[in-house]
Amino acid sequence: MRPFELTAPETVEAALASPGTFLAGGTTLVDLMKLNVLTPQHVLDINELPLRGLDTSDGLRIGALERMSEVAGQPGVYPVIARALLQSASQQLRNMASIGGNLLQRTRCTYFRDVEMPCNRRQPGSGCSAISGANRMHAVLGTSDSCVATHASDLAVALVALDAEIRLVSAEGSRTVKLAEFYRLPGDTPEVENDLRPGELVTEVLVPRLDWASRSTYVKVRDRQSYEFALCSAAVALHIEDSRIVDARVAVGGVATVPWRLHAVEAALRGAPATPEAVEAAASVGADGARPLADNGFKVSLLKRTVVRALLELTEESR
């Protein structure tokens, strides 16, 4: 780790007026600094800023500095969000990691984290080592010839499924952005991972009210049961009346370069009976457009099976 200057601004205004890299839980930033992937000269510890709180009175508002473990245990948090949080990392990391930091975490691609290897996200134009390298954990959706790294956040998958937004502030003012639009596909510029502008700070997450999201779940398939990133995950919420699916929200993680909403699956579910046959048929289009690599072709079928598993969990509750 290279030397850096650490300061702790006491107000949001002071933080925005100071150039540097924001530090909350530090569960990603510190790791990358140790590896020299990130080498900020000035780090701003923002943990004392008034960016906490959780309000469930009309939808869900979560302060960006709330810790993951605290949010997961609060009443009124939609099950899909709570389960995504509880299946993230380890208990120790969940106690430290902030909500805002989790949404901004960098990819866990081993080539990105190894400064000796070419990586277009870390060094634009150097190449993507994963395309012809060890790519079992990499993406099959949303990829490009420049990058095939998966997005790491479980929470982001659940929030994208529920049409969540994030509020961003800067010295110029504030704006609210849909999380699904905040993340960027790699295309020819994989180093631009999101729409966060220089000097901006995430202040809160806003989830619109969706009463039927009380019937929701998060299924995560991984190589081991804890402290492991997803091979595939599915965030699902269903509105079921009289054994028929009225509406659906479905997103997947571990298989795409961004949290991936499955609009075609949702459309196939709407109006369908809440039966295993209907669920199987809807999930069959989930991997349309996939581009598997040498080692991760299994993710195409795994995606479909993971979505089916999540949907069956919720439809069985209605029978």
TrEMBL record:
Tell me what this protein is called: Xanthine dehydrogenase family protein subunit M
* Gene3D superfamilies reported in the protein's UniProt record: 3.30.465.10, CO dehydrogenase flavoprotein, C-terminal domain, Uridine Diphospho-n-acetylenolpyruvylglucosamine Reductase, domain 2
| UniProt entry keywords in alphabetical sequence | Oxidoreductase
**Residues in the signal sequence:** none
Per UniProt, residues of the FAD-binding PCMH-type domain are 1-212
The superkingdom of the source organism is: Bacteria
Entry coiled-coil feature ranges = none
InterPro entries per record: CO_DH_flav_C (IPR005107), CO_DH_flav_C_dom_sf (IPR036683), Diverse_Substr_Oxidored (IPR051312), FAD-bd_PCMH (IPR016166), FAD-bd_PCMH-like_sf (IPR036318), FAD-bd_PCMH_sub1 (IPR016167), FAD-bd_PCMH_sub2 (IPR016169), Mopterin_DH_FAD-bd (IPR002346)
Tagged with keyword Oxidoreductase:
yes
Q: Which PROSITE patterns match?
A: FAD_PCMH (PS51387)
**Organism listed in the record:** Pseudonocardia xinjiangensis
Query: Mind telling me which SMART domains this protein's record contains?
Result: CO_deh_flav_C
